[in-house]
Design goal:
Strand order of the largest sheet: 3-2-1-4-5-8-7-6
Mean pLDDT: 82
CATH class of one domain: Alpha Beta
Number of strands: 8
Structural class: alpha+beta
Low-confidence stretches: 318-322, 354-363, 417-428
CATH topology of one domain: Transposase Inhibitor Protein From Tn5, Chain A, domain 1
Strand content: 5-15%
Largest sheet: 8 strands, mixed
CATH architecture of one domain: Alpha-Beta Complex
Distance between the termini: 38 Å
Length: 428
């Protein structure tokens, strides 16, 4: 980069030390002969462009215009979009390294299962008349590789495993919304294993004789903090044979229970119940994985690991409000998703003075620190600092005009040869 930016250098120090070598290994940055004048030949420049676009919510056009005005690099928004299409696996690899997921989520630690996290986040669909949409995605937990993506603007389309195509040997992790008999039957019929947070309203459980289990009475047997218990449980999907699984429970510590209760009250204003408050003392999951392959302790630990990755996207919403997807293209959306996780992870590292918490060690204090640090992080990745904007604003405008030239040129030609017609800039 032409200018030394100490704030960006602080971000670079939080990245894996081999981030440049990794970019070359993955073909994101390729050596080019000098005569070709490759625009982006440094992984740091690429990451700064991507993080500015993803973390601040700036459009691609605004991002590259600010990059030009800030003397970082001069490229078109089309060139940046092409980079977004190809950068997803690289951004995911960086994020996985920072979160230690390759070791934490390795299949050999979890009974040989390939762990897949399924989730949905609310976004604004691309386009000038953006509408709310649900972005359903599945990521492999080990390396955050995209498994599948589904975007729906239909409010009636909810979160379900049936949006995806599970494979044998996979273990699919989902929150309470995914815990229902049809979804569990769908995974089992495809040879996959569910691990879901227990849903009191949507997931009735039965004993071997077909009698309804009193889950509240069962979990009450966990009396000591951090105590783990499990029971055999069956799911009875409609028009399907009963599915045997296990109900695994861990009692929270008093501090964890207090935070769980605060979250429950915050998320259910006006609908708090005594039973709901009771269950805030426990982490309760259901899985069909056999005990000899995945113990109750391991199942609960794996669910908590999934929790940490999901929270980085969920909590991003509380910092940046509802985001607008850059494009409908799957590769671009994938880069956007893993870029969100990377931005949150980097902000956390800055907030905790360079201490890289592993996902299993994530705690509320680190999150509060990240909340405070988020604005500073966005300023650090900014391509044009606020005080420099006035001085370089003419360059910013000139760059926007330059890459809009062809649109305006087409409009001028139409006006010349078809006078009197209504001419829309950028039409046709």
């Amino acid at each position: 980069m032409k200018r030394i930016d100490p704030e960006w250098q602080a971000i670079e120090r939080c990245l894996p030390k081999n981030f440049r070598q990794l970019a070359a290994q993955m073909g994101v940055i390729r050596p080019q002969p000098a005569q070709l004048e490759a625009k982006i030949n440094d992984a740091a420049v690429l990451l700064r462009l991507l993080l500015h676009h993803i973390a601040t919510g700036a459009s691609l056009k605004t991002t590259v215009a600010q990059a030009a005005a800030g003397a970082v690099i001069d490229i078109s928004h089309v060139a940046l979009h092409k980079r977004m299409i190809t950068s997803g696996p690289y951004v995911a690899a960086l994020t996985s390294a920072l979160l230690h997921l390759e070791a934490e989520a390795a299949p050999e630690r979890w009974g040989g299962y390939d762990a897949i996290i399924a989730d949905e986040t609310k976004v604004l669909a691309p386009g000038p008349f953006a509408s709310a949409a649900g972005l359903h995605y599945a990521l492999r937990l080990t390396d955050l590789k995209l498994v599948q993506l589904f975007l729906s603007t239909d409010d009636s389309v909810g979160e379900t495993f049936r949006h995806f195509e599970p494979q044998p040997g996979q273990l699919w992790l989902g929150d309470r919304v995914y815990a229902n008999p049809p979804g569990i039957a769908y995974l089992v019929d495809h040879g996959a294993v569910p691990l879901v947070r227990y849903n009191r309203g949507a997931l009735p459980l039965y004993d071997e004789a077909g009698q309804r289990l009193d889950v509240k009475a069962l979990v009450s047997e966990c009396e000591q903090a951090e105590e783990v218990r499990e029971w055999a449980a069956w799911v009875h999907p409609t028009n399907h044979a009963p599915i045997q699984g296990r109900l695994c429970v861990r009692k929270f510590t008093p501090e964890q229970a207090a935070k769980s209760e605060a979250w429950y009250r915050r998320e259910n204003p006006g609908a708090v119940t005594a039973e709901g408050l009771y269950f805030t003392q426990y982490l309760v999951v259901f899985t069909t994985a056999p005990r000899e392959r995945l113990s109750a302790e391991a199942a609960l630990a794996l669910y908590r690991l999934r929790w940490q990755v999901e929270l980085r996207i969920k909590r991003d919403k509380s910092l940046t409000e509802l985001d607008q997807l850059p494009k409908y293209k799957e590769e671009t959306i994938y880069t956007w998703i893993v870029g969100k996780i990377l931005a949150q992870t980097l902000a956390q590292k800055l907030a905790t003075r360079g201490v890289a918490f592993s996902p299993s060690a994530w705690h509320e204090e680190a999150w509060r620190a990240t909340q405070v640090m988020w604005q500073a992080f966005c300023q650090a990745v900014a391509l044009l600092k606020p005080l420099a904007l006035a001085q370089r604003f003419h360059v910013f405008l000139e760059h926007l005009s330059r890459y809009n030239y062809r649109k305006h040129a087409r409009a001028a030609i139409r006006e010349r040869y078809f006078p009197g017609e209504v001419v829309l800039v950028g039409s046709g």
